[in-house]
Each structure stands twice: as C-alpha cells, then as structure tokens.
Design brief:
The complex is a heterodimer of chains A (397) and B (442). With 397 residues, chain A is an alpha/beta fold. Chain A has 14 helices and eleven strands. Chain A folds into two domains: 10-117 and 215-234, Thiolase/Chalcone synthase (Peroxisomal Thiolase, Chain A, domain 1); 140-209 and 237-392, 3-Layer(aba) Sandwich (Peroxisomal Thiolase, Chain A, domain 1). Helix content of chain A is 34%, strand content 18%. Chain B is an alpha/beta fold and 442 residues long. Chain B has two domains: 4-297, Peroxisomal Thiolase, Chain A, domain 1; 316-438, no CATH class. Classes of the chains: A alpha/beta (397), B alpha/beta (442).
C-alpha cells in the first residue's frame, strides 16, 4: 500500500477563472471560453500548444466532446471525469498525473458547471433507475450536511446558540472575503443578524448557511516542473494530491457520530505526508476548503488538522480563520460567496492559491503566501469523496 | 382441529381533521393494512392465505395484497389476493379466512366532498383478523348472508368521492335485511341473541339507530371512527374484542348491498391475547391536520410545491431485486463479524468478508435518533420532509424519513419504530418503503 504522490514533479503555468454567478448571459461553452482565454493568456501559449485535456463536470455535458466542441480542438485527447462536487479537482489530479508520467508536455484541466438553467433550487441529481429507497434521492444536500449540527452539539456539549454563532461567523467571514473578489457571485458583506435570521432551508441552516448555486468555469495548465520557467517566472508547484472515496460505512455504522468526515482526515494525512507537512497550522499560508454549508467548514477545521477535535467552534469565533487570522481560510469567499459551480469549484480553489502566490489577489492579497491547501469534497456525511492538494510557490522537492 | 380466530389488530392513523381520523399523505389502504396485519401476526405462524379488502385500492390491474405479503415477509407459497369493492368485500375476506384459515386484512381511505357528511363522519383505518387452527381467542358459531340489489351508495371508479340516494330509502331496505340476517345467523349459532353486536353499514340512518335494530345483551357498537368502507366491520369487531369477556358471544353484522353476519364466542384466551393498543386508545389524541393540508393530501386542492424536481418513477427490476429490503426492511448481518448492513450489502463494510451474509430483519425493531434534520427544500408530497439517522436496537444504522411527527418533536436520542409508507407516486407507480415514527410510550 503506497500513496507516493508526485511531489514537485509538475507545475501550473497558467490559470483562468470565469466570473461565477447566475450567468443567464452565458452558456456552458461561453463559461469554458471565458476561463480558457484567460488561462492561455496567463501562460502565453496558444491552443495548439496544449497536448491533452481533462474536463470535470457533474452534469453540464457528457464526454470529452463537451470540451472539444467548445474549444474547436480537433484530435486532441479529452477525458471527462465526474466525482460529484470534487470533479474539478479530479480533472486537475488526473491531468497532473498525465504530465508526471511523461505522456504529455502540456495538459489543461478544465472544470465547468451550468447549474442555473434548470429552473430548480439547489443541485439536481441524475440517478440511475432505482428501487426508490436511497435516502440521498430525496434528502437534499443542505439537509444532509445539517445533520452535523445537532450531532456536533450533542457530542461536545456545545450550546446550540454557540454553534449557531460559529455557523454565522463562517458565513459572515466568507461573504466579507468575497466582497473583495470581483469574480464572486456575492460581493456584498452580509450582517451577522441577517445571516442568523434568514429563512430556514434545512435543519438550522438558513439560506446564508448554504453555498451559492452558481454557473462558472475554471482551468489550469500543467507542465513538468523543470520546464515551468520556460512559460512563467511565477509558476505554482504541486506538492501533494490525495483522493479518498468512502465505502459509505459511516451511514451504516453506529460507531460513526456525524461530527467528522473520516475521508477528509485520511486524505489530509496522505497529502501532508506527500508534501512533508507535519504542522499544517504553521506551515500553511492559506487554505481553500469545501464550505458547501457552514457546519461543513467548522468540522473541516478539525478534520484538516487546523485545530483539535471539539475546538473548531471556539477557534472560528476567535477569528483564527479570518482573512487576518492565523490561518486564512477561503480568502476568496469560498463556495459560500464565490459560488459553487460544482465541476469548476476545485479548480477555482487552486486559482486563488495561484493569484495569491503571484501577488495578483488585489484587495485580498495576503502577505508572503508560500504554501496553500485546497480541499474539495463530494457526497455527504456518512459517505463522500475527499480531495486534498498542497501547492507551493517554490519548488521544495 | 377446527378453525377459529387466533388474533386481531386494528390500525388507526395518527392524523385528525377535527375529530375525524384521517390517513396521512403517505398512507393508503395497503400501508395501513400492513400496520394492522403486522401486529396481528406478531408471534403467530404465517397464515394459510391473505385476503385484502378495500374500496380504495392503491392499484388496479396489479394486486395490492402482494405488497402487503412482501412487507410482512410471508412465504411465497401463501396466496395473497385483493377483494376490491365495498364493505361486502371486507366481509368476504373475513368469511373466507374464517372458513379456510387465513388472514383477513381490511383497509380503507374514505374521502368525502369538502364539507360533506362523508368527510365529517367517515374514518380511515385498517384491521386484520387471523383465522386458523390452534388455540383460538374466539370460535365461529355461525354465519348468514342476504344479497339484494338496490341503489343506496355508489361511486364512479375514477371518482374520489361517492354519492348516496335519499338516505331513508336505503335505511328502509337495510332495516329489513339486518333483522332477517341477524335472525338467520343467531339461529345457525343456536343463540337467542348475542352479548355484543358490531354493526357496520354505509347508511348513517342505520348507524344512528343501531341499538334499536338488533339487541345485544351487553353492547351494540358501530365503528368508533365512523364509516370506514371495507374496513368498517373489522374495525368495529376489533373494538368489541378489546372489551368482550371470555364466554361472550359476538354478532358481527355487515350491511352493504344486502347483509352478512358472523357469530363468535370469545374463549378464555381472549383476555391474554388482545391487541396491544385498544381501538379506543388509538382513537384518542392524534395530530391535528389543517383542512387545506388535508385537502391537498387527497388531491382535492393543489398546493405550491418546493422548487425541486419530482422524483423519478421507481424502476421495476431494481425494486424486484430488492423486494425483501424495500418491502420487508430486511438488511444483512455479516456472519464473520456481526456487522449489520441496512440496506443489505454483499461485502462487509467492517471486515470485508464477501457473501457471508444472513438476513437481518429490522421492521419490527425499535431504534434511537442519532441526528436529524427538517428538509424544507426537498420534494415531498407534504413538506417539510423530516429525515433522521437511526441506530437500530441490536445493531445497524439507517437514514430514513420520519413521519407522523411535528418537526420540533425530534431530538437526538428520541426513540422510534418503523412504519411501512408510500413515499411518493410517480408515473402512477407508488414508492413503498419504510419510515420511522416516534414511539409514544406504546
């Protein structure tokens, strides 16, 4: 059993990201082209320099043709991957492996999602014909993640009001961060009172506890690390890529308590080992995590090792993960206010690390960021896929 | 050995429209029949046959009794058949079971036009009567029947609500039929009159005058929930069995398009083998349902749905492959390590053993809420949807909907049991599955 990773073997030399939001003006193709154009320009290359593509999308198109038709790219390999909300990270991970293997010199990972054309609220599922018994066909994502709240309070004796305050703080922080992001879906700070008193969606989750349902696309260009400087003076190096898919045991196992994602704990441990990180609290400059719902971000702070189990509520309320805290989490606004176009989100997280390392993050620029973590999750408590990457400004390996 | 009544049970749904007992949006004649039959069959051998009577079948052109059969986990050699029609069908189920042995289970959802006496004075419910060889709780002493064609009540097959001729016309016919049939049955039983009379009739004038029509030494009762169609006689009979003393004789009269009668005598065993929760206790209390919500449940008004897609139609092959799970709520237990899988799995999630599973039935077990949520976004025929993670007594965990509960009644640690329900209907296919209901000290 080995998860060797490819630390320091590949680098990102260009990225692009569309504006996220209710993009009634843009089709899937338009969103892809918006991110793609920026991406090629940032690397200073043209379409024909790209050898192969990986496309991540949950439901905005089938097969590699969704991308090759949009780009008009003849006879280049395009692989479409789907791993629920981690699809964008999956496209990136597999594109990195293709470069590390030496199969291609220049590979593009693209993630896209066009959610707002359905006319429905929230995410839609496309399930195979079934027997009508699976809880996830009826239970929505906010409901599934709201299960964390009563379970967490019961386990740690956290007063429900304090938990509510921490959930509110997460939403407030991410909206505040997003207000400094011109590409975010929501660009206004939101008062804590407005957040905590919002109409309920599921459990105690109000509308401001849920990530933005959004249209958008993001992409990355990956090359062998030793050739990165041929394209840019400020590439971003990939130190770790980890993915874990659960057996779904938690949903069946009375030993699981709905206060943690064991898949996240395992993927983080794997990524830290690949990157040689032994104290994420001090070694990371920033983290982009999967804040699909506010309790998720609280629990992730523990699962990713940013704080001890049972301490996240206190640390969140102390502002430790605010933009000016000891470890800024979701400085770009996160899924909460940047928006969550499913297939694009994993690449959008990497885009923030890219901008921060290059000093291009504008109003939200952090001081001397050098190491970032991105965490992307698909599924729900009780059974999910979890992706963790570590990217660095310098080539450390 | 002769065939006698071995057990009985009634099921009254929890919801109330004023005083009226109403089935929840996720209940139908089939699901209520499962609830009554499961109680009647507890600690009993599988019945020789299952006869299901209703005037509100969930399906036509498909047997409804097979879903009940599957939910009860009965052997596949057991005949299960529908008798769809009226109170006569209910009696036919009872008489067939009494003659040949078997389970008669009668369930009905009665719908009246808004404001009608059917809406106000009808009732929804089910009852099951198990007949067979063994030590009976009541012996059958005699039966009698009279059939007559006349128009008192009728309903077009596609109509939700029915109609009635001028009530006094039917009352005149039924008065004669009831007296004559009662006399025949008592003759056959060798009795002058019975201790208890249970009278079922769709004609409300007859129900009001029940005590003046037939003499009962100790009581004359009609259904405590009002007229409940094909379930009326079985529910009224259950109410009598709740209180009758050993040795008492019971005359059951079911007057629909004629009159049918069954005479029973309670045995010594009755006092120790009554249903766990008497009809009168089930009748008390309940959850108030607003009139508009009730009307939406019956399809009489359409409310604004959540902005979510309706679920897909259940697919026949996966439902068939999973029949013991979907209908019987049976998981699997790993023979290597004991880990329980709800739903069933072939590979053990704990020890990875492959195909070393034995069935783990959980339908009759209780459980505890681990965590829960109220989903205001989910598509539901009656939002909001409540879902809970349940740890089952004796092992295993599942996530299921919670029904018959106010959203604020849930808490971590709440105790629940399981109830067979209709989750939704898509493409005219009903999605039958199990939900959790809070245990109310029963």
């Amino acid at each position: 059993m080995a998860s060797n990773g490819i630390p320091g073997r590949v680098a990102v030399i260009g990225m692009g990201c569309s504006r996220f939001g209710e993009r009634w003006d843009a089709s899937t193709e338009d969103l892809i082209l918006e991110a793609y154009t920026e991406c090629l320009a940032s690397a200073g290359i043209t379409r024909d320099d790209v050898d192969a593509y990986w496309l991540g999308t949950l439901s905005s198109g089938m097969s590699g043709l969704t991308l090759s038709r949009a780009l008009g790219s003849d006879d280049k390999p395009v692989t479409r991957v789907e791993n629920m909300c981690a699809s964008g990270s999956e496209a990136f991970r597999n594109a990195c492996y293709a470069v590390a293997a030496g199969a291609y010199d220049v590979v593009m990972a693209v993630g896209v999602e066009k959610l707002k054309d359905s006319g429905f609220s929230g995410l839609l599922r496309q399930d195979p014909p079934g027997d009508g018994t699976a809880p996830e066909i009826s239970m929505t994502a906010p409901a599934a993640f709201s299960l964390l709240d009563p379970a967490y309070c019961a386990k740690y004796g956290t007063h429900p009001d304090e938990m509510r305050d921490a959930m509110t703080h997460v939403a407030w922080k991410n909206h505040d961060n997003g207000s400094r992001n011109p590409k975010a879906q929501f660009r206004s700070p939101v008062a804590k009172d407005t957040i905590s008193k919002a109409p309920k969606v599921a459990g105690r989750l109000g509308v401001f506890d849920c990530s933005g349902v959004s249209d958008g696309a993001a992409c990355a260009l990956i090359v062998p690390a030793e050739r990165a400087h041929e394209y840019t003076e400020t590439p971003m190096y990939v130190a770790a890529l980890s993915l874990v898919a659960a057996s779904g045991r938690g949903a069946l196992d009375p030993a699981y308590d709905y206060t943690t994602f064991p898949e996240v704990v395992r993927s983080a441990k794997d990524a830290y080992a690949q990157a040689g990180i032994d104290d994420p609290r001090t070694q990371l400059s920033l983290a982009e995590v999967h804040d699909c719902f506010t309790p998720t971000e609280i629990v992730l702070m523990e699962d990713l090792g940013f704080t001890a189990p049972g301490q996240a509520v206190k640390d969140v309320l102390a502002g430790e993960f605010d933009a000016d805290g000891r470890l800024p989490v979701n400085p770009d606004g996160g899924l909460k206010s940047f928006g969550h176009p499913v297939g694009a989100s994993g690449l959008r997280m990497l885009y923030e690390a890219w901008l921060q390392f290059r000093g291009e993050a504008g109003e939200r620029q952090l001081t001397d960021p050098h190491t970032a973590l991105t965490h992307n999750l698909g599924g729900r408590p009780g059974g999910c896929v979890s992706f963790v990457s570590i990217v660095t400004r310098e080539r450390n390996h | 050995m002769s065939i006698g009544l071995l057990s009985y049970a009634a099921y009254l749904p929890r919801h109330r429209l004023g005083r009226r007992v109403v089935a929840g949006y996720d209940e139908d004649s089939t699901t209520m029949a499962v609830a009554a039959a499961a109680t009647a069959l507890k600690d009993q051998r599988a019945p020789a046959a299952l006869f299901f009577a209703t005037s509100s079948p969930a399906y036509a052109d498909k047997t409804n009794a097979t879903a009940i059969h599957a939910a009860l986990g009965l052997p596949d050699q057991v005949l299960a058949a529908d008798l769809c029609g009226t109170g006569r069908s209910g009696y036919a189920a009872i008489r067939s079971a009494a003659q040949t042995g078997g389970l008669a289970v009668c369930g009905d959802v009665r719908v009246g036009r808004p404001g009608s006496s059917d809406e106000k004075f009808g009732g929804d419910g089910a009852a099951a009567l198990l007949f067979g060889e063994g030590k009976p709780i009541a012996e059958v002493l005699g039966t009698a029947s009279r059939t007559e064609e006349f128009l008192d009540r009728w309903r077009a097959p596609h109509s939700v609500t029915g109609q009635q001729w001028e009530e006094r016309f039917g009352a005149e016919r039924y008065t004669r039929l009831i007296r004559a049939t009662a006399a025949d049955a008592l003759n056959a039983a060798g009795l002058a009159d019975a201790d208890h009379v249970a009278l079922a009739c769709p004609n409300t004038a007859i129900v009001k005058r029940a005590a003046t029509l037939v003499k009962g030494q100790k009581s004359v009762v009609t259904s405590p929930i009002g007229f409940s169609g094909a379930a009326d006689a079985a529910i009224a009979m259950s109410a009598v069995l709740d209180t009758a003393e050993p040795g008492d004789t019971i005359l059951v009269l079911s007057a629909t398009d004629g009159c049918d009668a069954l005479v029973l005598r309670a045995t010594e065993r009755l006092s120790e083998a009554r249903q766990p929760v008497p009809v009168a206790q089930q009748r008390d209390g309940g959850l108030a349902v607003p009139a508009l919500t009730y009307l939406s449940w019956r399809g009489l008004v359409e409310l604004e749905p959540p902005r979510r897609p309706e679920p897909d139609r259940v697919a026949a092959p996966p439902a068939s492959r999973a029949v013991s799970w979907k209908f019987g709520l049976t998981g699997t237990r790993c023979e290597a390590c004991g880990f329980v899988h709800i739903p069933p799995a072939r590979v053990c999630r704990k020890c990875a053993a492959l195909d070393r599973m034995s069935p783990a039935p959980v339908a009759g077990l209780a459980g505890t809420v681990v965590t829960y949520t109220v989903d205001r976004l989910a598509y539901s025929p009656s939002p909001p949807m409540i879902q809970a993670v349940i740890d089952v007594d004796g092992g295993g965990r599942c996530t299921v909907e919670v029904t018959d509960a106010e959203p604020d009644a849930l808490h971590v640690g709440a105790r629940v049991r399981f109830s067979f329900r209709r989750l939704f209907t898509a493409g005219d296919v009903h999605d039958y599955f199990w939900k959790a209901v809070l245990t109310h000290g029963q």
